[in-house]
Amino acid sequence: MFFCQLKQAYKAFWLCIVFLTTACGVIEPSANKLAAPVNLKVGEGFVNPIGYYESLPRFSWQLPEESEQKQQQSYQIQVASSVNFTAKSLLWDTAKINSNSNAWIRYQGQPLTSRQQVFWRVKTWDEQNQMSSWSEVQSIELGLLGNHDWLAKWVGHPNPDGIYNRPQYLRKIFNLDKPIAQARLYITAKGIFKPYLNGKAISNDVMTPGWTPYHKRIETLTYDITQHLKQGENAIGAVLAEGWHTGRIFGPTKKDYVLPMRLIAQLEVQYTDGTTNTIKTDESWQSSVQGPVRSAGNYDGETYDANFEMPGWNTVNFDDSDWLAVNFESIDTQVQLKPKRHAAASNILKLPAVEIVSVKDGVAIFDMGQNMVGVPEIQLPAKQGQAIKLRFSEALEHGQFYVKNYRSAKSTDFYTPKADGVINYRPQFTFHGYRYVEVSGYDTNFEPELAWLSGHVLHSNFTLYDNFKSNHSKLNKLSDNVSWGLRGNFLDVPTDCPQRDERLGWTGDAQVFVSTSMYKADVYAFWAAWLESLREDQGIDGMIPKFVPFRPFLTDGTAAAWGDAATIVPWELYQYTADINVLAENYSMMKRWIAYTEFHSFDYISNIGTYGDWLQPYSTNGRAKGDTHPDLIATAYYARSVEIAAQTADLLGYKADAEQYNKLFLKIKQKFRNYFFDQELNLVSTAIKTIKRDKGKRLRKPIKSEIQLITTQTSYLLPLAFNLFNQHEQDLAVSKLLALLKESDNHLKTGFLGTPMLHQILQRYGHSDLMYEILLKETYPSWFYSINHGATTTWERWDSYSLTDGYNKANMNSLNHYAYGAVAQWFYNGMLGIQALEPGFKRFEINPQFTSKLNNLNGSVPTINGDIKVYWQIRQGKLSMTIDVPKNTQAQLNLPSVEQVTITQNKSVIHGNKHTLEPGLYQISGVIRF
């Protein structure tokens, strides 16, 4: 009896062990499993990152397209210190969680630490409780998370002659006396740097570390350099140039060239025997400013003199006896060194020159065929000592370079050869916005050839989607132009323009384009990183600067609609991604911005001031700020920010805040409605109160003054978009907007702020036919007007160029601006009809805005669950349509203008123009009414 009981206990013990180890993922029961999750990512889209920034990572994945699984019912995530996922190595195991969430799942184990490497995997269960296989194992390796992790010092050339902007060459020899298992280089600079090991560049990154508020934070990068090292002597080196830190920003000022360039680097080696060695920047490093790069700046270009080349300067055998010992400085505890939280800018594309426009008197003009951002590469015959000069332009005017719009940016590169013969040169420490390149100084015994010149396209390293096509060539061109404008202005920060002496992160441009950019490219990490700079540059009073990173000597103060990027950018990112973290990170900034706006308002009317509906066409006296009254704009955006804050507070669980902001929104809404409009919703035209304030104090009592308000399209678009008219008044407001459009022959008369609202409002109130008419217009002002005049990007002005008048006389005339490209969002929300019903497109509507003006459209919206794909074609009044609904989502099909609808999936047929669609591929046919 005893032995029988012992046998049963033994059996129960081992059954328990099997159960526990199975739950932990150490032993799995044999069964037919579903296909494993795919597209595993960490944070805002990182895959197997090295130098990661988050001590509590967020995990995301997708269900595979080929899987039978349609929905996720549950998931399990495991994080371990080893790839084997033994019970001993497990750091965090969710066990089985009943949830359909597949993105932004926060790690809840012990916070990860600097340098720590962990491994993670995930599996899921479907609606029938069938389990998938484990995913492929992914890894995360953290960077140096805080200043205390740095043993290195800031180093740089001593500059005895005060040459702060001359590029510096830095090097050190070190010995590794054991077999190497792994090596990491942690590095950053005050300035921009290019690192080398044993004579070879270690990455394709450019303009690193990028641009942040340097007085508060400098981003660091981490490189796996294991394969670059060898046992024995090694050489590490770097070239250091001014970049955004030391170089001028905007026009030349007395503030230029006062901040010395510095490098900090920490090379950590792990030997195979488990010991470590750290090589760091310190007083043992050597430096020189006598290298071939004689000068380099963002705006003015690079000068390279081959006579100063130092062959092998970054190798072991180089003689550096005439180099100087570096100056060194301790780390400033007030400036955080933190891992870069989005991919660095990189050399993304290489374009060939497409035409030699002219050759005259030793000057050749090359056409790249595309307005682009980057640097040229030349391979051409040269004469000893005869400098080759490269000038850049976005356009030609009567065959001559049009450079007025570059203003003080010289945008010129020089190369001086040390011998006759063919030279190869590509600038490393600058970038240009250009389509045309003027080349002079070459050996005129040779005729210029297209092969002499190519262009390297630089931007932050993200993926651009090729996700929209139609049968309309100019519509396709507009989509491409918007993408190229995004490429050109997403070089580490979202800039307004990439060519002139500006290139600043204007907050107003950002907030009108952020949503569109998410449909066009994988830029969530890019925006999340910029928002960190926005938070850092917010004033102690809550003020959000006009551009970020901010330089106070350029301008002061803020502007309504520009500062409102503090609320709008996080909110739009949340709507697209459903990542609550972007709201949590930025909620305090939102609150402080609203407090600032409240301080600068009187009786709920904001008087912050604004750049207005910037560059509205046909404005009175051609004023750049447009005709929409600034207080109307400021108050509308005040209301919008408060409403966003209320919704954000509710989502984050701050119920008291949500209640407070909802009440404030209703008060602003009521005041806005009655202050700016009469009972018939006509704009009040006289006796507007001008609000005066004492400097640094609250607003004083407003003073009435006779101001003639001008009725504009934007004066109705903003309140309609921001829910500032009462429900029963909205149709009347729309009718007044339509009347204004009709007065302008159905042309838009909107600037930066009104234009992105146009497609939203016209579709919302059933006037997509009119939006098509406006969008497809050929005459000024319109998107196709620029295309008809040769645009390959979107312009800053609707009339940047015309055949009759040439280029706009203003010197503020960028041919590469993204603000008006915001219309591309309608390609996806309107034409394809894909609208999110929940943040992140977990549930979405498909309601294409069909038109007789187009025969077919094909496009997709990438989401956290996969790509939503829509194709439609109309032939002789008959609709043929394909819809691909991603796994773990649900679509609401709504085709009000289609009759006799037949929906087919896997030979199963249903009828009707309204249906809920589960994941899968659908074919739809019907008869369309226009």
From TrEMBL:
Signal among keywords: yes
Domain Bacterial alpha-L-rhamnosidase N-terminal: 178-336
Domain Alpha-L-rhamnosidase C-terminal: 833-907
Catalytic activity: Hydrolysis of terminal non-reducing alpha-L-rhamnose residues in alpha-L-rhamnosides
GO-annotated biological processes: carbohydrate metabolic process
Keywords attached to this entry: Hydrolase, Signal
Pfam families in the cross-refs: Bac_rhamnosid (PF05592), Bac_rhamnosid6H (PF17389), Bac_rhamnosid_C (PF17390), Bac_rhamnosid_N (PF08531), Ig_Rha78A_N (PF25788)
The Alpha-L-rhamnosidase six-hairpin glycosidase domain, residue ranges: 467-830
Alpha-L-rhamnosidase concanavalin-like domain boundaries: 359-458
GO molecular function: alpha-L-rhamnosidase activity
PANTHER family, per the entry: ALPHA-RHAMNOSIDASE (EUROFUNG), ALPHA-RHAMNOSIDASE (EUROFUNG)-RELATED
Database matches in Gene3D superfamilies: 1.50.10.10, Galactose-binding domain-like, Immunoglobulins, Maltose phosphorylase, domain 3
EC number: 3.2.1.40
UniProt protein name: alpha-L-rhamnosidase
Signal peptide: 1-23
EC class name: hydrolase
